[in-house]
Design goal:
340 residues, alpha+beta, five-stranded antiparallel sheet, three-stranded antiparallel sheet, 10 strands, 33% helix, globular, CDK, Protein_kinase_ATP_BS, nucleotide-binding, Ser/Thr_kinase_AS, kinase
């Protein structure tokens, strides 16, 4: 650790504190994620390392180094100046529709690369999307990611591929996960992408439940009571039949997303579907007419560029940023004193 000088706290990921540091020999500014050693943290950290090592995209945060020291693990990551939430809620930065369209394209391009590598993120949300000083969106925090097991078409063991259902932040969690499914694929990320695209426009979460039950109720109220047509395999969800629903009709997507480009409404509507098999994949979403209609996406070098101290300057912070930056900070410097 003597190779790095700790500068200041940045925040925390799902399982670790994050600080800004300078590499002494080169002067390069980096982000260092510190994770206390534990069985669960070690497993998640190994998955994060393997995912980041396998990915090579301008739209995914870069892993520069990793090592152990004093019963903790450290990931050295490229430093990224700001985040999508900070950009959305900064009154001094004007984001027009073509800027948001470019963020959407960057996100989907990163997801295309991620899914082509058979990696599912499992926690896509605005707080995990960073914005570099060049204005480029980068997917971060792969602590819940994993490599999906591949099976041949017709393989009898295909339905035996099980993954934990306790993934994704509640407001961006696909309905099959809310009902306890352990059989899923990259389509859970695409549900999250749909929620993110809507939130970029509305500046508020699309489905904002404060508990799993409330989240389910909000989703059902807006998408309608599931039917054989909208969700044919719903009875396979472990927790689906534990609940009874009062019948309700779906809210039209243009009512759910008022005063928004009708092509974006169509794109989001094809991502937030009960039936995961019918959700657009990332490549299909990139080819949606929304990205080829006026206003066209902004050229990346013309995107708004946050200052390097953007996180520190932004005040007040949106709720999720506050939670991300301030939770458990009381122990941050204790961790640093003990381990660095």
């Amino acid at each position: 650790m003597e190779s790095y000088k700790i500068l200041e706290r940045i925040g925390e990921g799902t399982h670790g504190q994050v600080v800004q540091a300078m590499e002494r020999s080169t002067g390069q500014i980096v982000a260092i994620k510190c994770v206390r050693s534990s069985d669960k943290a070690s497993k998640n950290l190994l998955r994060e390392i393997e995912s980041l090592k396998a990915l090579d995209s301008d739209y995914v945060v870069k892993l520069l180094d990793h090592f152990c020291h004093s019963f903790s693990f450290y990931l050295v990551l490229e430093f990224v100046a700001s985040g999508l939430l900070e950009m959305l809620y900064d009154d001094d930065i004007w984001l027009d529709d073509f800027h948001l369209k470019t963020y959407a394209r960057m996100l989907l391009t990163g997801v295309v690369h991620m899914h082509a590598t058979n990696i599912v993120h499992r926690d896509l949300k605005p707080a995990n999307l960073l914005i570099s000083s060049d204005g480029v969106l980068k997917i971060a925090d792969f602590s819940l990611s994993r490599l999906l097991l591949t099976t041949a078409v017709g393989d009898d063991d295909q339905n035996d591929r099980c993954y934990t259902g306790q993934v994704a932040t509640r407001r961006y969690r696909a309905p099959e996960l809310l009902f306890g499914s352990v059989h899923y694929d990259q389509s859970i990320d695409m549900w999250s992408v749909g929620c993110i695209l809507a939130e970029m426009q509305m500046k508020t979460p699309l489905f904002s439940g404060d508990s799993d039950m409330e989240q389910i109720a909000i989703v059902v109220h807006n998408l309608g009571t599931p039917t054989d047509e909208t969700w044919p395999n719903r009875n396979e969800m472990p927790d689906y039949n534990k609940l009874k629903f009062t019948h309700c009709n779906p809210v039209p997507t243009n009512v759910l997303l008022p005063d928004i480009d009708e092509l974006l409404v169509d794109l989001v509507g094809k991502l937030i579907l009960y039936n995961a098999d019918k959700r657009l994949n990332a490549q299909e979403a990139l080819l949606h007419p929304y990205f080829f209609n006026e206003p066209l996406p902004c050229l990346e070098h013309l995107m708004p560029k946050p200052p390097n101290d953007h996180r520190q300057k932004l005040s007040p912070k949106p709720t999720e940023v506050i939670e991300s930056l301030d939770k458990n900070f009381s122990c941050l410097y204790t961790i640093l004193d003990e381990t660095l």
